[in-house]
Hints:
The chain is α/β, with parallel strands linked by helices and about 375 residues long. It has 2 domains: about 1-80, DNA polymerase, domain 1, CATH 1.10.150.530; about 85-370, TIM Barrel (Alpha-Beta Barrel), CATH 3.20.20.70. The chain is about 30% helix and about 15% strand. It has a 9-stranded mixed β-sheet with strand order 4-5-6-7-10-11-12-13-14, covered by helices on one side. Strands 1-9-8 form a 3-stranded mixed β-sheet, with no helix packed on it. A two-stranded parallel ribbon has the order 2-3. Helix 6 (about 225-235) runs parallel beside helix 9 (about 260-270). The protein binds S-adenosyl-L-homocysteine (SAH) and iron/sulfur cluster. S-adenosyl-L-homocysteine (SAH) binds near residues 183, 219, 283, 285 and 316.
Amino acid sequence: MGLASHGEWFSPPQASAGERKNLIGLDREELAAEMKTFGLEPFRARQLWHAIYHRGQRDFRAMTTIAKPVQERLAEAYVLEVPQVVEEHVSSDGSRKWLMRMVDGHEVETVFIPDEDRGAICISSQVGCTLRCTFCHTGTQDLVRNLSSAEIVGQVMAARDALGEWPGQPSENQRQMTNIVLMGMGEPLFNFDNVSKALHIIMDGEGISISKRRITLSTSGVVPMIGRCGAELGVNLAISLHATNDEVRSRIMPINRKYPIASLMAACKAYPGLSNARRITFEYLMLKGINDSTSDALALVKLLSGIPAKVNLLPFNAWPGSPYEPSDEATMHRFADLLMSAGFASPIRTPRGRDIMAACGQLRSQSLRARQEHHHEDEDHTHG
Ligand code: SAH
Ligand code: SF4
């Protein structure tokens, strides 16, 4: 899939010469190598890792485990920079949406959805998305770039800041952020290297320490990358399926023309570590008159047979100008019942955070939209 073929494609910002380098987003080996070049012993790199990812510290001069002169030198050479929260919206149901600004001025949205005994943050992997599924608001955004590993892990860190859940902070002992879902803006398997590096940092037991069992990566079906996702990351997999035949799926999800349903299902069957306790989640967006008939439900049952699977039925969230309508409630229940009687757990997901447009598939930066309106007058997209 040609990434540059739709809209604009550009790379994450790199610190220019003379600027202080961001240490966030380096994996353990890279941090150790960087510190070696800087003249510090390996155990110093480990102390630094702990201060950054376990304690959540951003100020070298406050790192009491590190000698004063070393603190000074580090502060002169490096920064610890995460995206800046520029807006916070809190829903009446407790979910929150943060607009996070990157150093180059681009913005992504990160959402926190609390539940009784757990809570998930939904993070973004790209600014915008190249794939242009016809039901998705993110895919209508023109500007697209990959997020760096720093920007991906930084969303988790900024969320932990906002929730006050680092050691010594008020909510440390009742952490609500227990799970991570990659279901925000972008296609994570189109940015595999940075997503992989960020997830390894997040999963590291001496740092943020959220295990692979509590992380779910959602993909529109980038078939060639699904095996690596399982083998190298081992996280839970969610597939945005949304249709049961290639004709409909290609119409609403252009990626299906490249990787049709049969190839997607074969990749799912081969996903490592599947069992009844560890299933693939199939997301199925209910679009009125498009994919919500009884024969669709039966076709779905047939497609999933032999795969340890659960189905999430998603009510379509309409956005201004969206070309579809949500299925009727009765239709959704009938669909769910059919799946249920075939043995598939298939809850209808109640949309959370509707009042703040926090639901998946609605994420699209408002200020980027404003910027886009000036897009043609302004050839330089690196706004500060
Ligand atoms: N690009 C990946 C990750 C984003 S996940 C993927 O597509 O899987 C975002 C989830 O929200 C996907 O399941 C997507 O299909 C769904 N979604 C997109 N637009 C939506 C809408 N308008 N209403 C409800 N869900 C939507
Ligand atoms: Fe991209 Fe996923 Fe939206 Fe499709 S549903 S446009 S793949 S973010």
